[in-house]
Design brief:
The structure holds two protein chains of two kinds. By secondary structure, chain A is α+β, with helices and mostly antiparallel strands. Helices cover 29% and strands 22% of the residues of chain A. By secondary structure, chain B is mainly alpha-helical. A two-stranded antiparallel ribbon of chain B has the order 1-2. Chain B starts with a helix and ends with a helix. The chains are: A alpha+beta, B mainly alpha. Chains A and B meet through helix 6 and helix 12 of A and helix 2, helix 3, helix 7, helix 10 and helix 11 of B.
């Protein structure tokens, strides 16, 4: 009886304190990893961006069909070739209670320019000029077509909160990689959630920010408990057993299970990460011949790999750009014709074939080692003998940097969500000074393609730019500059009643602020 | 006794030194930590600069001497991922692992004695054959498979037990949070403990059975039987005592092995202990943490082995301690 009375008292108290006395909505989320730091500028990774969308808010963000939606920036206009003027939303406050102003954007921009991970993306930008409290100009050194793309990476930080010194005399704004800094443990953003508790590698608790500006959002989640569960079977089991409400990713082997299980829903979307093989022309003379490269492309059955190894969980590709990107050309279709491949090999004088070495990671991309094995056996059919070696990603990347094999696997997702990015890192003539071609282990080099990219990157007219990038993709396809396989699909699992399909996207940062739970 | 103790301590120090050297030597082959610390499009130039800052470009000897100097002052380096001293990270994770080992030990001790004794006394009953058959399966099935199987049966299909994590823990002192204080904690620790015990339990059942059968053949048991002492008194008072001596020795050494097996169990059950942490550290190329883990687990092994030897000497005075140390 006493217990009942105290419960009643608490209930009455809660009812009087909050005007809308609703039950609190809590969801448990399990990801395969948790964010490395609370500092949004410490590492450019999916985990960091997922976190940023929960606790900070970008100036603009991507919609499901890869368009731009205003967030903290209400509107924008190009005022001259190198200046974009943004207008901030009025009445937005940070978790600390400070109001968001142009000065915060300026401060954040300077910090981004100093971040080792982000400064590459912000290289074309020179400055943020504050016009007034809520207006600022984002300036580039030359006309640049990706201003809005880049604005999706500007999550304004609370400049007052991050200024000054901590108790032990360290600068609060300090950006330390792999170190203990104020920003890596404390945060104040404008996002829908704040982090109230965090035990790295074990759990993170997010609580809804009462002063969140977006009151039009139908999101009704008050609390999110994020647990990193690295093991695929355990993560799936946690969802099926009802211990968590939302998981990502769902491994290909369990797609059916999650889909058919009562009470859970599978949500999938084509992703934007392309998986490819590069053919090293410096190591293998035959790879200099476009006919040989084409023969390899003809010999590899992309659709078969997606169908059997990926269990249908990939989108067959013939180019780097996924659908929706400016450079995507739907007329480029996957080549698969073993007879034609043999003919091309004979034409190039390699009817008897040759031997090559191949390397692939075995824990980086979905089924990476199995894909490499399949490709190796497909090449055997055109008399190319492959000596395959697979290794964990930790060992793979240093080996990749050494260009240690004739054929190497690499997957790529464009940080800028733009076609030119694929070319810049994967197929551009390698150039140490500019960093172009940093991941071009094939040493493919075509000045014409590079010129197209340079022109595209200085063209702000999107229609014209699209033409240039499509032409670029066409050249790479015609030359078989690399062997495209597929884009990895993305999969999330949710308990029924968690309307996650509306908040997920191809970029893989769910907008939890808008999540509605029954 | 004292001379033996001193000798063992020196041996232990030599072993620890060797472990640190090996641990440090392999870290170059674990991969490049920088790849895990930065995004994919960061330029090689920036990476080199960060490598310099971390001291990764120094020679092996420079790095090792620096490490050893710090280690002697209790500083095993700072984890890249946790951004805390590696020793602190491990000490924070240690209680969870020890509780798991404790849970498994309880199960092993509680079940292996009755099962071992029963199968020794009645070797030909159906039940005994069943127990021995299952124990063969138990030894041959890998821990992670047992664990995944248990999750699917008891969590997903039956819904009796939670599938991951530690549940509600109660703070005891320092870094120690315990599972044993709440019902939720007990429910969470049961499956992982059974999984961890699954590899050792059959071993102990078989060991106790073999020892017991041997003892039952001995003269003094026959004599006791002839004297008409009740069978249960013979089995549990006279025979069991002599059976358990070698079992305790093996048991002590196996505790160290069990700590090693926690890597698999903790990974599958998302148990926030140091085994799970170690596997994650390997994936992340968190070298300071990897080396620190190897040193601490090495330390646990060395200490338990030393203690077991000492206890063995105390329990069984016929063992010549002085000669053991030689």
């Amino acid at each position: 009886m006493k217990h009942f009375a105290s419960t009643l008292a608490v209930a009455t108290l809660t009812a009087t304190l909050s005007t809308a006395a609703m039950a609190e909505v809590t969801i448990k989320v399990a990801y395969d990893a948790d964010p490395v730091s609370l500092d949004p500028h410490e590492q450019l990774s999916g985990g960091t961006l997922q976190l940023s969308h929960m606790v900070f808010d970008p100036l603009v963000r991507w919609t499901k069909d890869l368009q731009f939606a205003p967030r903290l920036a209400e509107s924008w206009e190009q005022i001259d070739d190198t200046t974009m003027r943004f207008k901030l939303r009025d009445g937005v406050t940070f978790h600390s209670g400070n109001a968001l102003t142009s000065a915060d954007v300026d401060w954040t921009f300077d910090r981004l320019k100093a971040s080792p991970d982000f400064k590459g993306i912000f290289a074309p930008f020179t400055d943020v000029e504050v016009v007034d409290e809520l207006t600022f100009d984002l300036k580039t050194s030359e006309p640049y077509p990706l201003v809005l793309h880049t604005a999706t990476y500007i999550f304004p930080m609370d400049s007052q909160f991050y200024s000054g010194t901590t108790e032990d005399g360290k600068d609060k704004a300090e950006l330390v990689k792999h170190g203990d800094s104020f920003a890596s443990r404390n945060l104040s953003g404008t996002g829908p959630f704040t982090v109230t508790e965090r035990e790295q590698g074990v759990k993170v608790i997010f609580d809804r920010f009462d002063g969140y500006w977006d009151t039009a959002s139908e999101g009704n989640v008050d609390k999110i408990i994020l647990t990193p569960i690295k093991e695929d079977p355990t993560r799936v089991a946690a969802l099926l057993a009802g211990d968590v409400d939302f998981i990502a990713p769902v491994p290909p082997t369990d797609l059916k299970r999650v889909e058919e299980h009562d009470g859970t829903t599978l949500i999938t979307e084509p992703g934007t990460r392309i998986i490819t093989f590069q053919l090293n022309q410096n190591r293998v003379e035959a790879f200099k011949d476009a006919r040989v490269r084409k023969a390899i492309d003809y010999a590899v059955n992309n659709a078969g790999i997606v169908d059997r190894i990926m269990r249908g969980f990939g989108t067959v590709g013939a180019q780097a750009s996924p659908a929706g990107y400016l450079g995507y050309d739907e007329s480029l279709t996957p080549r698969f014709d073993v007879e034609k491949a043999k003919a091309l090999m004979a034409e190039a004088g390699y009817a008897d074939g040759f031997s090559v070495t191949m390397m692939a990671p075995n824990n980086r991309y979905v089924n990476d080692d199995k894909i490499a094995q399949a490709v190796a056996s497909m090449l055997a059919k055109i008399n190319i003998k492959v000596d395959l070696q697979t290794m964990p990603k930790a060992q793979y990347w240093p080996t990749f940097d050494e260009r240690a094999a004739d054929m190497m696997m690499i997957g790529w997702h464009a940080d800028t969500e733009d076609s030119a990015n694929f070319h810049q890192f994967l197929t551009h003539c390698p150039d140490e000074a500019t960093g172009n071609g940093q991941y071009n282990s094939g040493n493919y080099c075509n000045p014409e393609a590079d010129a197209l990219m340079a022109e595209a990157n200085a063209t702000t007219d999107q229609t014209k730019r699209g033409e240039l990038l499509r032409k670029l993709e066409g050249i790479l396809y015609e030359e078989a500059a690399f062997i495209p396989l597929h884009w990895q699909n993305l999969a999330w699992g949710a308990r029924d009643g968690v309307h996650a399909e509306k908040i997920v996207n191809a970029l893989n940062f769910p907008y939890f602020g808008d999540l509605k739970v029954d | 006794m004292l001379a033996y103790l001193v000798k063992r301590v020196f041996q232990a120090i030599a072993v620890m030194f060797a472990i640190s050297l090996i641990g440090f030597a392999i870290q170059d082959n674990l991969g490049d930590p920088l790849r895990e610390l930065v995004g994919q499009s960061v330029s090689e130039e920036v990476r080199q600069q960060l490598r310099d800052e971390l001291g990764l470009n120094d020679s092996f000897v420079t790095q090792y001497v620096r490490f050893l100097g710090n280690a002697l002052q209790g500083d095993l380096g700072t984890s890249y991922f946790f951004k805390e001293p590696a020793l602190d990270v491990i000490l924070k994770k240690l209680p969870a692992t020890l509780e798991l080992v404790m849970g498994a030990t309880l199960i092993i001790v509680g079940l292996s004695v009755p099962l071992g004794v029963y199968t020794a006394i009645k070797p030909n009953t159906i039940l005994s054959r069943l127990i021995m058959g299952i124990s063969i399966v138990g030894i041959s099935v890998p821990v992670f498979l047992t664990a995944i199987l248990m999750i699917f049966v008891f969590s997903v299909e039956l819904g009796w037990f939670p599938s991951y994590g530690r549940g509600d823990v109660v703070h005891v002192f320092g870094y120690w949070d315990t599972n044993f204080a709440t019902a939720d904690g007990w429910v969470h620790i049961l499956l992982p403990s059974v999984a961890l015990a699954s590899i050792m339990l059959p071993l102990f059942v078989r060991l106790i059975r073999a020892e017991m059968m041997e003892v039952l053949q001995s003269e003094y048991v026959k004599y006791a039987r002839a004297k008409g002492i009740r069978p249960y008194r013979i089995y549990f008072i006279h025979a069991l005592k002599n059976t358990l001596l070698p079992v305790i020795t093996v048991g002590g050494v196996q505790i160290g092995t069990m700590v090693a097996y926690t890597i698999l169990t903790e990974t599958v059950f998302q148990w926030p202990g140091m085994g799970f942490m170690f596997l994650e550290a390997v994936n992340r190329v968190d070298t300071p943490l990897i080396v620190a883990y190897l040193i601490i687990v090495g330390f646990i092994f060395v200490v338990t082995n030393t203690i077991v030897d000492l206890i063995y000497g105390l329990v069984n005075p016929t063992v010549n301690i002085a000669r053991m140390g030689a």
